[in-house]
Amino acid sequence: MTGPTVAAPRETPPANPLAEFLLRLGDDRLVLGHRLSEWCGHAPILEEDIALANIALDLVGQASAFLAAAGEAEGQGRTDDTLAYFRDEREFRNALLVERPNGDFAVTILRQFLFDAWSVLLLDALKTCGYAPLAAIAAKALKEATYHLRHSSEWVLRLGDGTDESHARAQRALDDLWRFTGELFQTDAVDEAVAGMGIRVDYAALRSRWNDMVSDVVKRATLALPADQPAATGGRRGRHSEYLGHMLAEMQSVARAHPGATW
Amino acid sequence: MTDTRQPPTDTQWPLWEVFTQREQGAPHEHAGSVHAADAEHALQNARDVYARRGEAISLWVVPSSAIVASTPGDAGPFFDPGNDKAYRHPQFYKVPRGVRGL
């Protein structure tokens, strides 16, 4: 995957690009965090169960910070909870990669690894951006993401360079997920608009660094990097796969059945 | 003092003993154990199980099989403190005020 960053078709920028940009950051982490939490009580061993739940909690925490900032930027009184629990599928702005079902452990780990490598680079770029609230959240999240990447990379190495079975499953997972990685580097009117507010991310440079990081681990794991292929996209504009709706139905059911409940 | 412990009967990865250090200068203390395939993996599992809430600033992991333990049979000869020989206990010294963590 060495091609240039593909710009999505130009669309009218949303009324509030800053809120939109923050929503994307929050939704990626909320959806992935919830996906990981589905492993709770089901992971291969106790230690990994704790590790996945721990990473899930980190991601949900990051999502909460980004969504709260999005609500603030939006200025219509929506909180992180409102945004998480009372938006429908079409209003979610996460990339398609993070809504992929957990599959087997290899799918979960490869999905996590591809995301973590991207997240670390993106947060590292955002921690020095010109919008102070975002820079602060990014700096805090970066510490967690760095550990997540260590965890997922180590697992990729062990699965890839493990048994024939784990190698085959890891390779299959990588092949299946690859087409969802292109979307992570796509830019559109939202990115252009927030660049004017000091939030500038060089996605072409980010992609090249991501390629280096990913191919290094993939190679050491004795796996093969999949060939370039057209990117599956749409998540940033609310067009999701069939999987997100089911996930949200479960995630939002309690909050919607008991709006405003506290404990 | 032979190792009479039973080999692990489960089919999980090898067992590692985890030691955590709470603060600079404090000793590494035994926190528990984790299963892991290798040392780096053990370190990560130890981090997630015993240090995820900031309980430690440093971790050691040691293969459980590397630990040589005394056996219940040793209890008498090893640990009988000889309470009748008071001169063996340093209880006549006063610890200076201000000395902590001794």
The major beta sheet of chain B can be summarized as: 3 strands, antiparallel
Helix percentage of chain A:
55-70%
- The CATH fourth-level homologous superfamily of chain B: Phenylacetic acid degradation B
List how many beta strands of chain B DSSP finds.
3
**SS-derived structural category of chain B:** alpha+beta
| Strand arrangement, major sheet of chain B | 2-1-3
What proportion strand of chain B? Answer: 15-25%
Determine and state the CATH class of chain A: Mainly Alpha
Outline the structure in words.
The complex is a heterodimer of chains A (263) and B (102). Chain A is mainly α. Helices cover 63% and strands 0% of the residues of chain A. Chain A has one domain: Ferritin (Up-down Bundle), CATH 1.20.1260.10. Chain A contains ten helices and no strands. Chain B has 102 residues and is of the alpha+beta class. Chain B has a single domain (15-88), classed as Ubiquitin-like (UB roll) (Roll). Chain B is 17% helix and 20% strand. Chain B contains two helices and three strands. A three-stranded antiparallel beta sheet of chain B has the order 2-1-3. The model of chain B has no long low-confidence stretch (mean pLDDT 83). The A-B interface holds A 45-48, 50-51, 54, 147, 150-151, 154, 158 and B 12-13, 34-37, 40-41, 44-45, 47-49, 52.
What would a concise description of this structure say?
Chain A is 63% helix and 0% strand. Chain A has 263 residues and is mostly helical.
Features:
heterodimer; A: 263 residues; mainly alpha; Ferritin; 0% strand; B: 102 residues; alpha+beta; Ubiquitin-like (UB roll); three-stranded antiparallel sheet; 2 helices
